[in-house]
Design a protein that fits this description.
Radius of gyration: 18 Å
Largest sheet: 2 strands, antiparallel
Order of helices and strands: HHHHEEHHHHHHHHHHHH
Strand order of the largest sheet: 1-2
Shape: globular
Structural class: mainly alpha
Mean pLDDT: 94
Distance between the termini: 17 Å
Number of strands: 2
CATH topology: Farnesyl Diphosphate Synthase
Number of helices: 16
Low-confidence stretches: none
Amino acid sequence: MTITTEFQHWASAHQQRIEARLLALLPNSDLAPQRLHRAMRYAVLGRGKRVRPLLAFAAGEVAAADAGRVEVAGAAVELIHAYSLVHDDLPCMDDDVLRRGKPTCHVEFDEATALLAGDALQSLAFQLLAEYRVADDPKSQLEMVRLLAAAAGSRGMAGGQAIDLAATGASLTLPELEYMHIHKTGALIRASTLLGARCGRPLEAAELDRLDRFSKCIGLAFQVVDDVLDTEATTATLGKTAGKDAKHNKPTYVSVLGVNEAKKLAGELRGDALAALDGFGARAQRLRELADFIVLRKF
């Protein structure tokens, strides 16, 4: 597994591109209510890896999508992700004080403002998908709205978080842990890929299924690596509190499998993800490279 310099340049250029688009799409901090808008911008801008928008851009290449359309779809997904982090960090959830190397939103502002900032970021994501033309076919664009809503809701990310909270202090089997993370982490990663692909030319149902399979596998691999890093990396490296899961007695891939077996599982999931891309040829090269990036990342 290698991460090439050429891929690093591509990723950096697209990270800068989505950062600039988010900067432009978020409400200006001098607009009323100023404190809320400052909190929204604080929660979103700067230092994020932007893995979800990168997946959207890479999947967009599979479907020859216009990059400007993918920017909007990628921004919508990133806003949902940012809102989830703001809410996850609240005292009523994971009660964390550090995110992306800076104080969490409720620490920098206050709990009520952080809660409202998360709410507003979620609303803005759907506003973007309704306001901008991101697909040629209105039915396809409506399906994109449905996909993102389902990924964020009770059968997706929010449901996964509910399962996670309920599992604190409990022992989960590997299938139970996988079920939780298919929803909590994986649902939005799957939506990222499918939204990027739907910005371009229509794909066959079988092609969309293969992209979804890729995303499911790489979404789980992302979480496995997160769990390993929570054990092995430092707070300074992660930009968030290291060792938090063990401290809160949360079930993780490391607690269930051990570090070595968790690393092995991440590699197996990467292999399954890459196998799902067979038949796409060079169109899926960026997705393949992102699979390596996700499994090999150290931060």
